[in-house]
Design a protein that fits this description.
The complex is a heterodimer of chains A (112) and B (113). Chain A has 112 residues and is mostly beta strands. Helices cover 0% and strands 57% of the residues of chain A. In chain A, strands 2, 4, 5, 6, 9, 10 and 11 form a seven-stranded mixed beta sheet that branches. A four-stranded antiparallel beta sheet of chain A has the order 1-3-8-7, with no helix packed on it. Chain A starts with a strand and ends with a strand. Chain B is an all-beta fold. In chain B, the strands form two sheets. In chain B, strands 2, 4, 5, 9, 10 and 11 form a six-stranded mixed beta sheet that branches. A five-stranded antiparallel beta sheet of chain B has the order 1-3-8-7-6, with no helix packed on it. Chain B is globular. Classes of the chains: A mainly beta (112), B mainly beta (113). Chains A and B meet through strand 4, strand 5 and strand 9 of A and strand 5, strand 9 and strand 10 of B.
Chain lengths: 112, 113
């Protein structure tokens, strides 16, 4: 059974903290993605990675960075958390451009 | 202009009716197209994928793709209350080194019993 696992289901952080969201997949997928989902806005792409140490900006990269040191793990970093980064964060992975994306369970992040 | 656009809805249909969901995309180099379903509080899951012009049927679901019009649709026949969810249109397009998957904002569907 394929699996994408995010490290936390719920997270509460203070403004200005450095926040790490971890995502691990066990499908040997090359491509991994980080999205945030807000009501009425759908899934917006933050960053994606097509290989180890390779990353590209998505549509809303400001305030975020990513790390992919191993194929199975893709981390999203909020350098200095702000209240407007309160959101649901979803990680996904896929093997090729013609195959479906598998999602993690999501991390509900609240920045206070 | 958003890369992938959907009517946000909500779309309300009676049980047993056909639900029609539409999506347009802006980039002609987009190469593959997907419909995902997302129940409240859950992650998206794939319903259909389509890569070439025409129709693709899977059970009660039919996806339609028209690349000339940059248009993708999903028809749900014999709609059931369990089909009530948000439906997300997604498009894969090539990037510098790989590809990225772009989602529309989603259409909320309500099927009334």
């Amino acid at each position: 059974d394929v699996k994408v696992t995010q490290s936390s289901r719920y997270l509460v952080k203070r403004t200005g903290e450095k926040v790490f969201l971890e995502c691990v997949q066990d499908m040997d997928h090359e491509n991994m993605f980080w999205y945030r989902q807000d009501p009425g806005l759908g899934l917006r792409l933050i960053y994606f990675s097509y290989d180890v140490k390779m990353k590209e900006k998505g549509d809303i990269p400001e305030g975020y960075s990513v790390s992919r040191e191993k194929k199975e793990r893709f981390s999203l970093i909020l350098e200095s958390a702000s209240t407007n980064q309160t959101s649901m964060y979803l990680c996904a992975s896929t093997g090729t451009a013609n195959t479906e994306a598998f999602f993690g369970q999501g991390t509900r992040l609240t920045v206070v | 202009q958003k890369e992938v656009e959907q009517n946000s809805g909500p779309l309300s249909v009676p049980e047993g009716a056909i639900a029609s969901l539409n999506c347009t995309y802006s980039d002609r180099v987009s190469q593959s197209f997907f419909w995902y379903r997302q129940y409240s509080g859950k992650s998206p899951e794939l319903i259909m994928s389509i890569y070439s012009n025409g129709d693709k049927e899977d059970g009660r679901f039919t996806a339609q793709l028209n690349k000339a019009s940059q248009y993708v649709s999903l028809l749900i026949r014999d709609s059931q209350p369990s089909d009530s969810a948000t439906y997300l249109c997604a498009v894969n397009k090539g990037g510098t080194g790989g590809f990225k998957t772009i989602f529309g904002a989603g259409t909320r569907l309500f099927v009334k019993a």
